[in-house]
Design a protein that fits this description.
The complex is a heterodimer of chains A (108) and B (112). With 108 residues, chain A is an all-beta fold. Helix content of chain A is 0%, strand content 44%. The mean pLDDT of chain A is 88. In chain B, strand 4 and strand 5 form a beta hairpin. The mean pLDDT of chain B is 91. Classes of the chains: A mainly beta (108), B mainly beta (112). At the A-B interface, strand 6 of A face strand 5 and strand 9 of B.
Chain lengths: 108, 112
């Protein structure tokens, strides 16, 4: 079954500390994975996708097919990173399969 | 383009009332998605359309929920009758034959 799992509902770290938001997936084909972010009182927006191999706002995510993971990382958290983060997988019908989301709180 | 437009932004209603949420996708996009977001369940896909045709409505929770897309620039999600457990933020998103979905600002629904 196709599934995206974000094991942490809430993650709280201090400003300047490293951040890792976990995402594991289950998919029979070759996955295409995304991270979406929703800041307070803003709409959900795409943060990054694995095929772009880019770094957005200091965040990176590497697809690890062996571990079926796509963890989101940032070496030094900033207060403005506080938001809701969703990991998603797209299937062959261009339908996104979502993780439950992780609320990231950056403490000053 | 103004992006995906949803209305109303906030809706407060009483249990048993009919609720209609509206969405205008980005012009030219051929996919439209309705999602529900709650703290307990995160983001759930309710239904999606391709070229105005419903493709997958398996996420629609109950018969009380229905969605239509009468033309390429408008879709509605209706709940009748509404219940307190329907309280959530409902998002509409659109895309153009690809993985990148553009989300609307959402409608926060409160059913008392």
């Amino acid at each position: 079954a196709q599934r995206v799992t974000q094991p942490e509902k809430l993650l709280s770290v201090f400003k300047g500390a490293p951040v890792e938001l976990k995402c594991n997936y289950s998919y029979s084909g070759s996955p295409e994975l995304f991270w979406y972010v929703q800041y307070s009182r803003q709409r959900l927006q795409l943060l990054l996708r694995h095929i772009s191999r880019e770094s957005i706002k200091g965040f990176t995510a590497d697809l690890n097919k062996g571990e079926t993971s796509f963890h989101l990382k940032k070496p030094f958290a900033q207060e403005e990173d506080s938001a809701m983060y969703y990991c998603a997988l797209i299937d062959s019908n261009y339908q996104l399969i979502w993780g439950a989301g992780t609320k990231l709180i950056i403490k000053p | 383009d103004a992006g995906v437009i949803q209305s109303p932004r906030h809706e407060v209603t009483e249990m048993g009332q009919e609720v209609t949420l509206r969405c205008k996708p980005i012009s030219g996009h051929d996919y439209l998605f309705w999602y529900r977001q709650t703290m307990m369940r995160g983001l759930e896909l309710l239904i999606y359309f391709n070229n105005n045709v419903p493709i997958d409505d398996s996420g629609m929770p109950e018969d009380r929920f229905s969605a239509k897309m009468p033309n390429a620039s408008f879709s509605t999600l209706k709940i009748q009758p509404s219940e307190p457990r329907d309280s959530a933020v409902y998002f509409c998103a659109s895309s153009l034959q690809g993985p990148r979905q553009y989300f609307g600002p959402g409608t926060r629904l409160t059913v008392l």
